[in-house]
Amino acid sequence: MFTINIQADLMNSHNDDTIEFVHMDELSLPLVNRFYKSCRYPAKAGRGERVYCLRQNGKILAAVKLMPKSFDQQEWLFLRAMCVLPELQGQGLGKRFLEDLQNCFDLPVYCYPFEHLEAFYGHVGFVCPGETEKLPSAVGEAWRRLLGQGRKVLLMIHRNPVSV
Length: 164
Prior knowledge:
Radius of gyration: 16 Å
Mean pLDDT: 88
Order of helices and strands: EHEEEHEHHE
Number of strands: 6
Shape: globular
Low-confidence stretches: 1-14
Largest sheet: 6 strands, mixed
Strand order of the largest sheet: 1-2-3-4-5-6
């Protein structure tokens, strides 16, 4: 758990202002999906995904999914659907969330962030792979499809998994 300063009007003075980093169990996924919907974010958390949230007094402030993947004897995680409450964006909450989340990386982690978020993901160790780097074919093919659709996204990887 950690504490971060957020907008005072979102906290009641009689409540604890501690923000918890929580691994959500499958029974909690409907709460996460309600959070995504309230943020107008087109994502849903599903079974088999590792879902993490930041909560304060039971209220979800941010959520993200790590999706375990494997193909052709390679295993990795795919980071998807990182969402922070719109009224809390730009206050460092997402940055701190990613910093704590990287402690859960037990495999290489890939993501397709929008181009303007390169520095945001880069500050915790995500990098764009070199052109000659061997990637899981499913990761590279999906990224090329996104580019072909005109999406302005990068392919980034966090290569330094920790022992969990």
